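Practice problem: Carbohydrate ABC transporter permease
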Amino acid sequence: MSAAVQRKLWGSLFISNWVIGFLVFMAFPIAYSFYMSFHNLEILATGLKVEYRGLSHYRTILFENGRYLYEELFPFLREALIMIPVIVIFALLIAIMLNQRFAGRTAFRVIFFLPVIFTTGQIIQEFMNQGEGNISFLDRYNVSYFVQEIFPETWAAPIISVLGSFVLVLWYSGVQILIFLAGRQTISNSIYEAARIDGASPWETFWKITLPEMTPFILLNMIYTVVDLFTFPTNPIITRVSQLDYGVASALAWIYFGIILVFLGIIFFIFSRISRPSKAYR
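Answer key — structure tokens:
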């Protein structure tokens, strides 16, 4: 076999575990939920009664009774728009710091990654219910008042909510830090040595070398952060789905899935424009 065939074979073997698991455990529930989004389900003593409703569930959620989207989901989406860049930028800066050589570097790497292991959704929810993770100086200096004075009401509330749980938000940066750290180590030190010989400052090497080389890892972390945040414990849709009729809940879940795809599509579009070479270069 040629080298190309061998690479394809090994790639297929590595991904086969996920494909088999998806087909066995996830494919049917996903397809059935899409089917049920067009039906009304009633649980009777004799069994399940399924009645075709067409697009009525989607019309109800989008137009007739849109409180699930416009009063609950949209404020959370505004929070996500704030949290995504905060998490990615924080993870990038911490990864660059942890890549430096200093005493106790391994211990600090473990500390930043430990929340990924211990903070499951239920633990995070319990912390938030107890008021943990808040930054004390926000109340001490009445930061909420200044935010409400500067920003409009639709954006002031999400910003205050993000600031109120800022520590918990940063706890969700462990995987991103690990990815950025691995990406930073793919950049050869000889490039930085050549830049220093040419007289480049650390600030210039960050903007001209580190940041462009880390663009693929920024894209990866943006995708991971979007998916991770849309399963955040404070997500109103996840809480609401468990309280609704199965047909309505399925329709709401598929609308929510479409919104996630829109977010990911915007990210892919932005990075495709950034990574596209200029005309002069071509």
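Discussion: Confidence is low (pLDDT under 50) at residues 278-282. Students who identified this feature from the tokens alone can consider the problem solved.
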